[in-house]
Amino acid sequence: MRVVVGISGGIAAYKAALAIRELVKAGHDVHVVPTASALRFIGRPTLEALSRNPVTDEVFDDVAAVRHVALGQSADLIVILPATANTLAKLAHGLADDLLGTTVLASRAPLVIAPAMHTEMWEQPAVQANVRALAERGATIVGPVAGALTGADEGFGRMAEPADVVAAALEAAGRHSGALAGRSVVVSAGGTREPIDPVRFLGNRSSGAMGVALASAARAAGASVTLVGANLHVPVPSGVELVEVETTAQLREAMLERASADVVVMAAAVADYRVRGAVDEKRSKESWGEAPTIELELNPDILAELAGLPREGLLVGFGAETEADDDALVERGRAKLARKGADLLVLNRVGHDEGFGAVDTRVRVLDADGVVADASGQKASVARVIIECVAQRLASAGEEHQ
Ligand code: C5P
Predict the structure, then answer these.
(1) Active site residue 204
(2) pTM reported for the whole predicted model
């Protein structure tokens, strides 16, 4: 993605370097447009070295390339950090007396702005009116936050952390033009727990990491995402709605309520059985005896139930298998896909050292015709591959409808 990073003249300008580095590291083509006063806070060589592209604040440099509009026209995303009170005012009124101003006006890309100034300035009605005007026109305003300011003072007005600004900017770009922009996605994640009594349960080793990575990848691709989380051991990404559940019955209800989403992913490790006769009072040795038995009864298969509903969206199931032989593993996956009636099945191998909680994983994505993707590595990158498969499938289903 081509990202324009605008920098205006506040002390937080030095932090823009971190944002540029992060964007370049993530593979984006970054073009920095500082204001003249930004260059008094941070040097051009730093910005050129980090962005790996030439940097100027001059409208009259490189005129033959019509730089004052070309940068804006070709940008997929513009992020301005820090935005001073002066720059906010200029942006709000459409001033174009420098390269940053012309670039913003020439662009139709999402605009993300991270203001930074002293508390008194931030609170001025004039500044607030400018921020409101920009937000109403669709700009994403990130921060400011409370914390240490330039002098000895502390308060509201500090620029949001560069990583948070980058995350918000990538999310805005995804919402605008991501492969799942405008789609709704529901992902179940984690492992359900089946109560024995109020303090004990039968559970499994799922951390929820894969489902959470999928929710995050879907969000980055522009979807509005709901995560139905069963006892998650990992943090929930920002911008994702969380519905917390504990038992299979609760997870089932949460998923059935949301079954009309464009994409439903059952990544949760759902307990196949629940305890028959779970009690509301804690069992004691006295009441349970010396060799108690726990009787189990079958839980409903939520994935199969979702597959049986009339639906227009895409249904994705998971299959965790301990099968060691590769061909046999895929064969089992195909049989499971057919049995459950999902559109796609993400197949992975699990064992005592594999799959659960581990950061690295290997999956095969199957449809009725066989393996459509094979991905390994960190769960975040594997999740991106799975979401690409989902997006492709939705896009080709859309074409068939036309
Ligand atoms: O049959 P198995 O448990 O291997 O199937 C795994 C897939 O089925 C996963 O997508 C899981 O979320 C889902 N599942 C379910 N309800 C169950 C058991 C599994 O939806 N009771």
Answers:
(1) yes
(2) 0.80
